[in-house]
Each structure stands twice: as C-alpha cells, then as structure tokens.
Amino acid sequence: MVSLMPTIIAVSELSKIYESRFQALKGINLDIRRGEIFALLGPNGAGKTTLISIICGIVKASTGSVRVAGHDSVADYRAARAMIGLVPQELTTDAFESVWGAVSFSRGLFGKPANPQHIEKVLRDLSLWDKRDSKIMTLSGGMKRRLLIAKALSHEPEILFLDEPTAGVDVNLRRDMWQLVRGLQASGVTIILTTHYIDEAEEMADRIGVISKGEIILVDDKAELMRKLGRKQMILQLQTALEHIPPALAAYQLELSGDGNELIYTFDAQDERNGIVALLKDLNDAAIAFKDLHTTQSSLEDIFVSLVKDEK
Asked: Any idea what the CATH number is for the domain that residue 262 is in?
C-alpha cells in the first residue's frame, strides 16, 4: 500500500514572500511518500511552481524547511539536489548542442562520472536514440519535451518533478509520456507533477494535493478524495413531462430539466441513507412515472472546481 511508504520529501511551515510583498506560499506542510505519484493541482498563480522551485533549491524560502531523504535542502543542498530531477516547462539548452551532448552535460553538472550505458538507456526509453547526434534546434516540440525528461533523468535521480509536463503536446505524446512515468514509478522513482489536465491526475496519481492562493487546502488519496467529495446524480426520464415539481417532493431539492422530461436528484455518494428508496416511493405516491433512470458521479474536475470556488 502506498500509505505505508516512508516520507521522502518533508515540507514544514514553508512560506515565501517576495520583495514586492506578494506572499506566494503560506505555511505549507506537505509530506511526499517514497515511490508514489503525487499530483499537485491548482489554478494559475496558486503557488505550484514556487513550491517546486523551493523544494528543488532554485528559489529560497522566506521561512520553513524542506528535507529530501533526510537532507536539509539548504544546509545540505548538494546532497538534496542530487536526489532530484526537474523537468521544467521550457527548454533553455544551447540549440546547437547535440541530444547526446546535452544529456551527458546534464549528468556532469551533478558530478556524476560518465556512464554511456545509462545515457543510451534513457535516450532509448524516450525514443530519442535515433536523434542522439541531432542538434536540438532540429527537434520537434514533442522531441524537445522528451529531451527535457532525458536531461532530468541523466544523473539517476530518485525523485522526478514534472512541471506541466504535457502542456501543449499532442495526445500520442501524452500517452507515451504517461507510459514512461508509470515505468519510472515501477523502477522506484518518486514522481511529483503539476498539471492543468485534471484527467491526467485522475488517471495517474496515487495522491492529490490542491493548492489555492499559496495554501494547501487538501491532500488525500485519489480514491478517498473521490469517495468523500464525489457527488452522484440520479436522472429519471419521465413518461410524461412535468411543468413543475410537486410541493410534496420539495425536500429532495430536485431539478427539472428544461423540457420537463427529466428529474435530477443530487445526493452524497458516501451516504448510505441517501433517500433514493423514499424518493421513488414518493414519486409513485405522486403518480409520477418514469421510463428509465441512470446515475452519474462527479469527476475529479468537478471536485477541484468546487474546492477552489469554496476558497474564494
């Protein structure tokens, strides 16, 4: 079980106030478990990139601490940073450098000895082997995104940060990338991703954190989050259209579709006493017949939108 895995990143009371007095982060406490895929969701400006940048040692926190596998990210910066691979949103490598040269150089930055076998494996895993001698300027957008991941994996990190890894890439590349991420997790790499694609988090993550206005407003196992916050709707297709909902059914807070042919009942997915049996009896007593019914459950996107809306 993921929940039994030890903590690999411990963030404690982390705050960041910029010189402009803008407070990007407010007292963040967060534990990332070894071997999990953790998705950090939040609207633009919520603090996702600032949090990642502090954990990776790129930005200095105003208060608080970060420990990476026991190493303090400030006092023991080199050891902490060596554990981490970061895939940024933008590629800043010399356009005239070759793919092989760029990935090998990234490995050298961490003081790792040359290891052509490892570089070859990374390039093959990312379908970049055939491009190893190509200049970066000749690569497609998708290939450049793969190169970012190759550079991040060059020094064999135990933790991989993916900051909006599939923003603006096509569906096939997204699928390939997630297959790669699953493979990395299977090999023991801990993965933290920020994403705007909520379906991505829903499909990939073990746990999900939601950040809004610089504060973590929720962290939970994905399945538990869906269970606790998911709302279900039962939609009844009526045999005869209604003009209005009878007063006797007011307690159920039903909605009537525009043409009067559907009744919609919204209820808590985890509440066993959700009133469906009573509703069906009361519909029968009111002589309202239906020809079909089906239920839908809210997606992670619905949950996310409602959480962030509640914070406003």
From this structure: 3.30.70
